[in-house]
């Protein structure tokens, strides 16, 4: 069965520090999709990135970057020069192609606190 | 384009009652999924609908049900509420039938007393 593990339940950093959020996944499917979502205190899950299992290119978007490594089943997320507005809970999620639909399996989330 | 909307945003019910939550997807999206979020269990998949047909169902009791209308709007119903049903219920919509990105609404926070 599919599983997503986010071992860091809470991280606290000071503004401008870099921070990496870890995500490890398990799946037997050869085609799958990985996602990161941000949940601010308002509660809405905000989509950040999607990566399919055939695309191991790392991606950078502004202060955000993602490192996908199939060999270690990891999809880590780095925020460079963190800001107070980055404070939120971040979720990693997995969707398997062989399952009909768009069902997501979420990790437990990592609460990031950025202090001024 | 307007995002996913959910109504009501907050709800307080008592044990034994039933509740109906509503979700309007992003315009043009035909897939709607529901998730329950609790501090203890995290984010768990409830069910997914596409073109008025249930495509997937999570591991929840039969008290949890849903439906989708021809305009893609969806409702979920919880009957005989229990204290443990207190949660944030999130709705998400997607354009495609599968392997697509889900966009989430603000959620409905249900409190069962």
Concise description?
The complex is a heterodimer of chains A (116) and B (113). Chain A has strands at 3-5, 10-14, 19-21, 24-26, 32-39, 46-52, 59-61, 64-69, 74-79, 88-96, 105-106, 110-115.
Walk me through the topology.
The complex is a heterodimer of chains A (116) and B (113).
Chain A: E1 3-5, E2 10-14, E3 19-21, E4 24-26, E5 32-39, E6 46-52, E7 59-61, E8 64-69, E9 74-79, E10 88-96, E11 105-106, E12 110-115
Parallel strand pairs in A: 2-12
Antiparallel strand pairs in A: 1-4, 3-9, 5-6, 5-10, 7-8, 8-9, 10-11, 10-12
Chain B: E1 5-7, E2 10-13, E3 19-24, E4 31-38, E5 42-50, E6 53-57, E7 64-68, E8 74-78, E9 87-94, E10 103-104, E11 108-112
Parallel strand pairs in B: 2-11
Antiparallel strand pairs in B: 1-3, 3-8, 4-5, 4-9, 5-6, 7-8, 9-10, 9-11
Main pleated sheet of chain A: 6 strands, mixed
> How far apart are the first and last residues' alpha carbons of chain B, in Å?
37 Å
The helix/strand class of chain B is mainly beta
Tell me the greatest interface.
A-B, 24 and 29 residues
Q: Tell me about the biggest sheet of chain B?
A: 7 strands, mixed
Task: Kindly describe this structure.
The complex is a heterodimer of chains A (116) and B (113). Chain A is mainly beta. Chain A contains no helices and 12 strands. In chain A, the strands form 3 sheets. In chain A, strands 2, 5, 6, 10, 11 and 12 form a 6-stranded mixed beta sheet that branches. A 4-stranded antiparallel beta sheet of chain A has the order 3-9-8-7, with no helix packed on it. Chain A has a two-stranded antiparallel ribbon with strand order 1-4. In chain A, a hairpin with an 8-residue loop joins strand 10 and strand 11. The model of chain A has no long low-confidence stretch (mean pLDDT 93). With 113 residues, chain B is mainly β. In chain B, 0% of the residues lie in helices and 53% in strands. Chain B has no helices and 11 strands. In chain B, the strands form 2 sheets. In chain B, strands 2, 4, 5, 6, 9, 10 and 11 form a 7-stranded mixed beta sheet that branches. In chain B, strands 1-3-8-7 form a 4-stranded antiparallel beta sheet, with no helix packed on it. Chain B is globular. The termini of chain B are far apart. The model of chain B has no long low-confidence stretch (mean pLDDT 95). Classes of the chains: A mainly beta (116), B mainly beta (113).
């Amino acid at each position: 069965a599919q599983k997503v593990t986010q071992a860091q339940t809470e991280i606290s950093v000071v503004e401008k520090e870099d921070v990496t959020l870890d995500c490890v996944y398990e799946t037997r499917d050869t085609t799958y999709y990985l996602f990161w979502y941000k949940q601010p205190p308002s509660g809405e899950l905000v989509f950040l990135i999607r990566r399919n299992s055939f695309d191991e290119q790392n991606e950078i978007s502004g202060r955000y970057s993602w490192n996908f490594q199939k060999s270690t089943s990891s999809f880590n997320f780095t925020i460079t020069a963190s800001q107070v507005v980055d404070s939120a809970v971040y979720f990693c999620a997995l969707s398997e192609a062989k399952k009909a639909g768009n069902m997501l399996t979420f990790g437990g989330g990592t609460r990031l606190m950025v202090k001024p | 384009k307007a995002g996913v909307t959910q109504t009501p945003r907050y709800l307080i019910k008592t044990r034994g009652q039933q509740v109906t939550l509503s979700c309007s997807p992003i315009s043009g999206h035909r897939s709607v999924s529901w998730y329950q979020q609790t501090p203890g269990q995290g984010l768990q998949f409830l069910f997914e609908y596409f073109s008025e047909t249930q495509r997937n169902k999570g591991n929840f009791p039969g008290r949890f049900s849903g439906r989708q209308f021809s305009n893609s709007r969806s409702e979920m119903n919880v009957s005989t509420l229990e204290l443990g049903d207190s949660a944030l219920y999130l709705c998400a919509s997607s354009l495609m039938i599968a392997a697509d990105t889900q966009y989430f609404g603000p959620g409905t926070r249900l409190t069962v007393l």
